[in-house]
């Protein structure tokens, strides 16, 4: 939800900068409805469509129908398997890589790790690939516990699991929780167990409340890697604009992530997402799909 | 008593001790005061919800809205403190009021509008899941959040409120027992005494076992039923307060998992001591049973779906105990 709000704000900002007449069709995570909405957009006579998330199975044919109707289409984080349609992606592998490189930098190449993972969720699966590679590369990294759940409120359920894991393995040094809700849960458990000085948490994604949690004195949450969802939204619109202008944005458009450490937040006095964009410029703007004529919504 | 009676009466308690013995040998660190306290803490929120739903089960009803009452109370607490910048007392009162009002409306729908309990509380569940998102247009609430009108919410969760989730009382060992566990134990004792030993509680059982007879005997059946839903709503909102204090944020959430775990605990409770009816002691033991299982399984690295599976097995076994073995389920 938080991701979608921020993504949409980016889409709106770039659309405004370009003078696009934007319609937002919210499928509320209903796969069938999302496909119907593509047909609805075709019937509206739009010039371009951005498809955000969804399932390959349900969106592939709908996307093809839009292309057949002469509409330019861009897909974000859903593979519609169509050479005509550019794929905008936040690189989950890079997210995980950045966070884990920081973990190795902070803790050396040999530690006991707890890992939070739920299989079958595409971004988490991609982040998992990197974790598997890192474990292969560093034989000293020993995953003693793997847990995770999406029972909501997620942070509360993960906190309960993490407490159990910590009592079984009090010698864990690093928790890799590559989704911020997981990291919040682990942090609650670490605090409750009184281990916040002995464990470090590495995660992915960021929000205002994550920033507050990372900034707490003695917070175990050491670093997170994140792509700014607003920037991803902006890039999606820019890619569509390039298509409509007859330019080739390339088939895979990757928005690079940023590493955010606890030290960055404290040293630069970053308290919320606005501060983060203002004080970490690489987080605020991605130089992706930026031909000379493209208006920059982030330019002050 | 025959062997069969003993099995029905003590079987589930024995199972509980067997489980503890098994995990004690299989999982390192399972037996320690901290671990025991943690099991209580992990079931505190669902336990409080379960005690509330027990009150509606007693009068022969059901409350599907407890999970969403809890998450709505959590959002209300966050809204009151972060957006309206009020203190902990106002936040707690707001939550309790929400619980009481929702319970009252549930009761009114069921008693006076004659909507079947499952349907009325199902409707209320949907209503609350939507309602809790309206004030912030679907945003979760945290200090420093940007409001729909572009302003920034600067209020904070007050320390007194957070203490409800984080403070620990000394008990032989310093900083051992969290507030949430004390709340669970106190509420469990209260509702147990209320249902078993007060006239009001006994009358609620009478309404549940035979509504018509209770009515003919001159009992104000409608009032008892409405009170049961108010108890359920207030308990659920207390669960929401504990949840907000633990998370330190207002998370939009349906609370469906809270509902399911709470209902499971209350139903497992039917089997405890062969009661074959909703009872507060059984509910508390049921919640603990689930907590012990999850703690042990997680410590042994079992993935989450096996935990759901095991929870389901326990529930089914408990229901078999209740309805088949005791033979009292048939009415």
UniProtKB/TrEMBL annotation, chain A:
It is found in: Periplasm. Residues 3-247 form the Periplasmic binding protein domain. GO terms for cellular component: outer membrane-bounded periplasmic space. It comes from the Bacteria. GO terms for molecular function: carbohydrate binding. InterPro entries: Bact_Solute-Bind_Prot2, Peripla_BP_I, SBP_2_dom. Belongs to the bacterial solute-binding protein 2 family. This is Periplasmic binding protein/LacI transcriptional regulator. It comes from Mesorhizobium metallidurans STM 2683. The lineage of its organism: Bacteria, Pseudomonadati, Pseudomonadota, Alphaproteobacteria, Hyphomicrobiales.
Automatic annotation (TrEMBL), chain B:
Its main location: membrane. This is Monosaccharide-transporting ATPase. It is an enzyme of class 3 (hydrolase). GO terms for molecular function: hydrolase activity; transmembrane transporter activity. It is a multi-pass membrane protein. One of its GO terms (cellular component) is plasma membrane. It is found in: Cell membrane. Keywords: Cell membrane, Hydrolase, Membrane, Transmembrane, Transmembrane helix. PANTHER family: ABC TRANSPORTER PERMEASE PROTEIN YPHD-RELATED-RELATED, RIBOSE IMPORT PERMEASE PROTEIN RBSC. It comes from Mesorhizobium metallidurans STM 2683. The chain crosses the membrane at residues 7-24, 36-59, 66-84, 90-111, 118-135, 171-195, 226-245, 257-273, 280-297, 309-327. InterPro entries: ABC_transp_permease. Pfam families: BPD_transp_2 (PF02653). Its EC number is 3.6.3.17.
